[in-house]
Amino acid sequence: LCSNRIMLNSQRRVADPEYQNLPVVFEDIGMAAFRIRNAIKKTECIHSEALSREIGCELYFKHDHRQHTGSFKERGALNALLLLTPQQKKAGVIAASAGNHALGLSYHAQRLGIPTTVVMPTIAPLTKVSKCKEYGANIHLHGENIGDAKEFAMTLCEQRGLTYINGYDDPAIISGAGTMALEILEQVPDLDYILVPIGGAGLIAGVSLAMKMLHPTVQVIGVEPVGCASFTAALSEGRPVKTECLPTLADGLAVPMVGGNAFSVAQKFVDKVVTVRERYIALAVLRMLEIEKTVVEGGGVIGLAPLLAGQLPELKGKKVVVCLCGGNIDITVLGRVIDRGLAADGRLIQFEATISDRPGGLAAFTKTIANTGASVKEIYHERAFSDSDLMTIVVRCIVETRDAAHARFNLISS
Asked: What is the mean pLDDT of residues 79-89?
C-alpha cells in the first residue's frame, strides 16, 4: 500500500504543469535509490536526548557523514558515474569541489575503474586533498573558492575531452542526494521539520523534492552561512546570482552562486531559509563533540546552528531532523573551531584588568581568578603602552570558565 501511495502521489504532482518541466522529478530519485543501493550505506537517524532537552524539541540527527568517504556526496557521485556511457567512462571525469564531492567521486570512480581529475580551491582542507590523492584522483589546486575552481575545471574539460560532473547542479547529483530523504522518512516517518545545509543547493533540492512528494506537511528549512548566503541572494533576485563569499568554518558550503537546476527545484519546495553566524557554527561543532561524541565539519553540522542560536522558535516541541552531511575536518582546524565554540558558549572569555605593578600584584590577581573557580589560559602584561600610572599595569587575560553564568556572576563580579 505504501509503495502504491508513493507512486500515485508522485505521478499526480509531476503531471501538474508547475512541476513537469523541472530538471529532476521524483522518479529520478527513486531510480537513483535503486541504482546505488548496493554501494551506499543506509546511515542511522538517531534521537538526541540531551540536545532535545537543551533546545526544546524532539531532535534527530541523520548521520550521513558516516558514508565511506565521510559525507552524503557519495550518493550523487555514484549515481552520476553509473549513468555514464562506456565512452565517457573510458575518457574519464572531472569535477570542481571543496572536498566532499571530490572524495565521493574519486572513491567510487576508482572502484569502477574510471579516471578522475579534481580541481579544488586553495581553501580546501588538507585532509580532503590527501584523501583524494589516495583514491587515485589527479588533483589541481586552483582559485580562492569553488567558483574559481569550476572555471578552471571547465577549461581542462574542454582541452582533454572529459565529462564534467557538477557536484551540486547535475540532475544525477540532485537525484542521488534526494535519496537521503527516502531513508529519513522510513526512519522518522512523523517528522515535522527537516534542516538542510545549503551550498550549491543540490542537497536541499533533492531532499525538498522527495519530502514534499511523499510527506507534503514536512517543513523544509535551508541553512547557510551568513558570509556566503548565495541561496538567499538567489531567492531575492528570483534567479542564481554571484554572491560575495567570505571565509567560513563551513568551507564546504562556500559556493558563490547556487546551481541553476538546483535552484529551479529548491525554490518550489523549500519553505524557509536562515543564515547563521560563525560563532554558532563553531558552537554546533562543539556540541556534537561534547554531547554526541561525534566529529562533524562546520558545513555538515550547520543545520544545528540556528537551533542553538534561538533563530527558529516555531520548532519548539516539534519533531525535527538535522542532516549531518560531512565529517571531514582538519585536526588543526578542529582545535581552532573548539576554541571558537568555547568562546561562543561563554566558557572562554577575554578581558583587561589594571593591577598593581608591585611585587605580589600578579600573584594576588591570579589568586582572585582561582578563587572564582576559573582557570587562566593566557595572560599578557602591557607596560610600555599603558595609560595608567607607573605603579599599575594592564594585563590582558583569556580565562576558561564553566559556563556563561559562571563567568557573568562569579568572575566578572570579582
From this structure: 96
What residues does 59 pair with on adjacent strands? 320
Residue in 229, 214, 239 with CA at minimum distance from that of residue 276? 229
Residue 209 has pLDDT above 90, yes or no: yes
How many angstroms separate the first and last alpha carbons of the chain?
67
Distance, in Å, from the CA atom of 227 to the CA atom of 236, rounded to the nearest integer, reads 16
Beta bridge partners of 319: 58
Closest CA to 276 of 197, 171, 216, 360: 197
Residue 190 exposure: Cα atoms within 13 Å on the Cβ side: 2
Give the Å distances, CA to CA, from 115 to 108, 135, 158: 10, 10, 16
Residues 6+ apart with CB under 8 A from 15: none
CA distance 324 to 252: 13
Residue 125 in grid coordinates: 582542507
Count Cβ atoms below 10 Å from residue 85 Cβ, excluding itself: 9
- Alpha-carbon distance of 342 to 365, in angstroms, equals 23
Closest CA to 75 of 203, 201, 195, 185: 203
CA separation for the pair 35, 354 (Å, rounded): 67
Cell triple for residue 224? Answer: 547557510
What gap in Å lies between CA 131 and CA 102, rounded to an integer?
A: 9
Q: φ and ψ at 222, to 5 degrees?
A: -90, 145
Average pLDDT score over residue span 243-251: 90
Residue 66 neighbours by CB under 8 Å, 6+ apart: 41, 43, 44, 327
3-state secondary structure 228-275: HCHHHHHHHHCCCCCCCCCCCCCHHHCCCCCCHHHHHHHHHHCCEEEE
Amino acid 302 reads I
Q: Give the angle subtended at the CA of 207 by the CAs of 4 and 96, to the nearest 5°.
A: 135
What is the average pLDDT score of the chain? 89
The neighbouring-strand residues paired with 140 are 119
